[in-house]
């Protein structure tokens, strides 16, 4: 078996704050194969974004990777010199963020920014660079790309701006794209356009992708595999359809049941009681125990270990029985 | 049934104020360019007492502006909104006493609650001003509403920042309900909340509707939330209502191409191994509200558009006993979507 493109092993990212130690990511392990789309889902504060940032060294102090390893294409990224990380970022691994208005430089034309991105990693003439940039814009569905190179970000609509950000991320044909909620800020109709395009772009170029989102529906229609995060840990992972069809962890089940789209209109939704625990004061046992209907005394003493079976993992002492699909 | 809330030919324009630069330019002989946005364009909508009306549409379609006019926060440029026969805003553009009868819950409970006031005072301020309670009795009064929205009544002495997002939204709902309104306008009340917390607030709204017999105008971009909470739905596109009717019917077989395209573009949860694409994007971009296309606003993105759609504005008309659509070909669209739904 060939080794995975990205292998994350027991990654832990902590923030030493004045209020105490925040264990934002605490023992996360997963793999991404070449050309595969992994959906990383979770609610706010679950550590999904910090996981993404940790992978490519974008953490800001006091955030720090305290343990674990990130192997990309056989190479260890944890502890790599900033210069070497910079060589990887934007070329082999690139990132698309939620808010394109915050990631694009407002005082540079789109063409100028793309030129900078190209020249950061290769020596290329202006004419040739413009040609490549225009081609990249055309590929993400921006009409009249050659003229649009001279436009500023504010002259684009929200959806078009996100397309520009995606075009920049794809410029160097990266092996891996980390997309952090790239469609959350967009309207449904624009979100659908971007989803369709992302899907075909990664399939076409064989790029692997980590799609970070809180929305199970978009993740389910995009990703091959899914990893569900809760309070800094991956509580369940596996093939997307299999996990969503028959979740083993009560939290995944709870998330699915709280979606109004799956309920009878007007009926009470099956809600998860309570709120996410503070990352400053995580309980010694399973972090979900206080909200879990299946919790037993042993859930409160130690965190459940990772159980692996049939290409899936879960962290639960009392997993749900597999459901029979009618 | 007669309408409780009447929105009659309501429009709202926003024009940018004239700047010093404009004035200098005018002195020097250039024309001041008047660029106004018609955020809401001639909207007619009735809401029956005790009913939940959903208002859906993409950003910039005017749904929040319409909600604010119903709540009496914003005066309409034209037309009027009445609740139980009384205008929400008088001709002098001052809110009438009736506005106590309609209250609003906003999207962001971090912005809608005064950070320097205790929750108890936030909730009691309105009822004391309107004589629903007195300062002396306000404590008991507030405890009642906190309990109703599922918060510990002892938490009244805390400040908003000491609550989580979901709890804060409960405070915002308690604040609105403490005015004992007949009508609640909710502007994306669950959009900023996590899925698990969102379900809690939806359940709370369902419970409150049952217990208090509230009339609801529920504004959301999330079609599934509206489907869950509202009996009727109105779909807006660029300032106009394009379709309105019972939610179940509209979702099952839309009678306007935009409604259909909007419903089709929502990704659905996939749990089968062989199904991959569950949604279909709408072609094209939302036109600028500054300069909307003539005729039907949707014609540029509509697969059914013909020459007539480019020139003639389709009126919002009754297509059967309970539904309205603003499409020249509503009947044909409905026939098509009905047969698709039957398969």
What does it look like?
The complex is a heterodimer of chains A (326) and B (343). Chain A is α/β, with parallel strands linked by helices and 326 residues long. Chain A has a domain at 1-80 and 178-184 and 193-262 and 271-321: Rossmann fold (3-Layer(aba) Sandwich). Helices cover 30% and strands 23% of the residues of chain A. Chain A has eleven helices and twelve strands. Chain A has helices spanning 48-55, 82-88, 100-103, 110-119, 126-139, 145-148, 158-170, 188-205, 216-220, 240-245, 250-257; strands at 6-17, 20-32, 37-41, 63-72, 75-76, 93-96, 176-180, 208-213, 225-230, 233-239, 307-309, 312-314. In chain A, strands 6-7-8-3-9-10-12-11 form an eight-stranded mixed beta sheet, with helices on both faces. Chain A has a four-stranded antiparallel beta sheet with strand order 2-1-4-5. In chain A, helix 4 (110-119) crosses helix 5 (126-139) and helix 7 (158-170) packs parallel to helix 8 (188-205). The two termini of chain A are 34 Å apart. The model of chain A has no long low-confidence stretch (mean pLDDT 91). In chain B, helix 3 (119-129) runs parallel beside helix 5 (165-177), helix 4 (138-148) crosses helix 5 (165-177) and helix 5 packs parallel to helix 6 (195-212). Chain B has two domains: 3-230, P-loop containing nucleotide triphosphate hydrolases (Rossmann fold, 3-Layer(aba) Sandwich); 247-343, no CATH class. The two termini of chain B are 34 Å apart. Chain B has an eight-stranded mixed beta sheet, sandwiched between helices. Chain B has 343 residues and is an alpha/beta fold. Chain B is globular and about 70 Å long. Chain B has helices at 20-27, 63-70, 119-129, 138-148, 165-177, 195-212, 223-229, 247-252, 257-264, 307-311, 330-342, and strands at 3-14, 37-48, 52-56, 78-83, 86-87, 102-105, 183-187, 215-220, 232-237, 240-246, 317-318, 324-325. In chain B, a hairpin with a 5-residue loop joins strand 11 (317-318) and strand 12 (324-325). Chains A and B meet through helix 8, helix 9, helix 10 and helix 11 of A and helix 6 and helix 7 of B.
